[in-house]
Write a structure and sequence with these properties.
about 45% helix; mainly alpha; protease; Zincin-like; 6 helices; hydrolase; Zincin_1; Zn-dependent protease; globular; peptidase activity
């Protein structure tokens, strides 16, 4: 089934942020506890600096990013200058959504789980289980 995109309006940055917040709250509590103070920030695209640092050429090539001090360099005595943040990139996610049959909330859940999961060293099996628990 092909969606007639002429009849739909993509969510604005604010609407997308609300969706992301709802999706995050559906994730299992034990998983969310790993990132109690994480901020979820929605932007249309990653910055050129982010793309360059990751060696990504297209701004559509990155759906999300977990930004924090690398766990291997953290110390309990360190005070982080920046809060932990997950960036969700609205336009690349919407582009992916338009090309696939997944629900937008499921795509956002996938990006959130993988950004958090990779940061904390979870296996793909762990992340798949967490995503299935949060499925809408």
């Amino acid at each position: 089934m092909t969606t007639d995109w002429n009849k739909h309006r993509p969510p604005s940055l604010g609407e997308f942020e609300l969706i992301a917040g709802e999706v995050y709250r559906r994730l299992p509590r034990s998983f969310r506890d790993m990132t109690e103070d994480v901020l979820i920030r929605v932007e249309d695209f990653p910055t050129d600096e982010v793309l360059d640092s990751l060696g990504i050429e297209s701004p559509f090539g990155l759906l999300g990013l977990y930004q924090a001090v690398d766990l291997t360099r953290q110390s309990v005595l360190d005070v982080s200058a920046l809060p932990e943040m997950i960036f969700l990139y609205r336009r690349p996610i919407l582009d992916y959504w338009a090309e696939h049959e997944d629900k937008l909330g499921d795509i956002i859940a996938h990006v959130l789980v993988h950004e958090i999961g990779h940061h904390f060293g979870l296996s793909d099996d762990d992340m798949e289980r967490i995503e299935s628990e949060a499925a809408s």
